[in-house]
Amino acid sequence: MTIGDMAGFGTLLGIWAHPDDEVHLSAGLMASARDAGQRVVCVTATLGEHGTSDPGQWPPARLAEVRAAELSASLAVIGVSEHHQLGLPDGGCADQPFDAVVDKLAAIIDEVRPDTIVTFGPDGFTGHSDHQTVSHWATEARSRTAPAARLLYATTTAEQIDAWQHVYDRLNVFLADGLPLRIPSSTVDVQLRLGEDLADRKLAALRAQASQTADLIAMLGEDTMRRWCCSTESFIDAESAATNATWGTWRPPGNP
């Protein structure tokens, strides 16, 4: 897919759990849409205030403030200025009243009137409970408010996993049984190949969220980070048979 193909996506709405989810999984798609003159709106459920291995140095209130600023800077790199923050607790999405949150998302969808909605699949991409819950909310809100809008789930392909298994093994990013998904590239509904300039912008957007990415980039190196995270983005339509996967059992990072 090229930037010239973006018109068919129309107004794009991304619905995600934590700051940096949107960039890791869809920065190329969002930047391409903005470059084509289309409206892009991002929703983030939480501020990721528990996203640290050092809560002594980064207590939740402080980290939330930092991550909010990082997210704004990161979105600016890819040209996105419209952002909604739901203000929900990091790690606690599954405990929120389902219908109340869906109503909030439905109101945003009603205002934005997206042609395309992008979010996690039911697996949550990594299996994180917040990711899975946001997928459920977004899917239901779209069903209630804009059933004609295209709903895309970010996914992993078999080719991607095979090429980067050595990185995934080091990071332990998949937190549920049955993951990562290994969707054949031939059955992916949208696969965006990021050119050099777009990959550089995505890397810059990732670097803007330094509380989450600085150590990762230092460990892997910029070249590996660019080729691993910034070369391809893959999505499947919600109605695709390829999404018929179990959610698995989530476990907190670091647990066996």
Q: What does this protein look like?
A:
It is a single chain. With about 260 residues, the protein is of the alpha/beta class. It is built from eight helices and seven strands. A seven-stranded mixed sheet has the order 3-2-1-4-5-7-6, sandwiched between helices. Strand 2, helix 2 and strand 3 form a beta-alpha-beta unit. It is globular and about 45 Å long. The relative contact order is 0.17.
Q: Concise description?
A:
43% of the residues lie in helices and 15% in strands.
Q: Whole-Å distance between the termini? A: 39 Å
Tally the helices: what do you get?
8
Q: Which band does the percent of strand residues land in? A: 15-25%
Helix content: 40-55%
Shape: globular
**What is the averaged pLDDT score?**
91
Task: Give the uncertain stretches in residue-range form.
Answer: 242-256
Tell me how many strands there are: 7
Strand order of the largest sheet: 3-2-1-4-5-7-6
Main sheet summary: 7 strands, mixed
Question: What keywords describe this structure?
Answer:
single chain, 256 residues, alpha/beta, 7-stranded mixed β-sheet, disordered C terminus
Strand-helix topology:
Elements (H helix, E strand, L loop, with lengths): L11 E5 L4 H15 L4 E7 L13 H18 L4 E7 L9 H15 L3 E5 L8 H17 L4 E5 L3 H14 L18 E4 L2 H13 L1 H11 L1 H8 L2 E6 L19
Parallel strand pairs: 1-2, 1-4, 2-3, 4-5
Antiparallel strand pairs: 5-7, 6-7
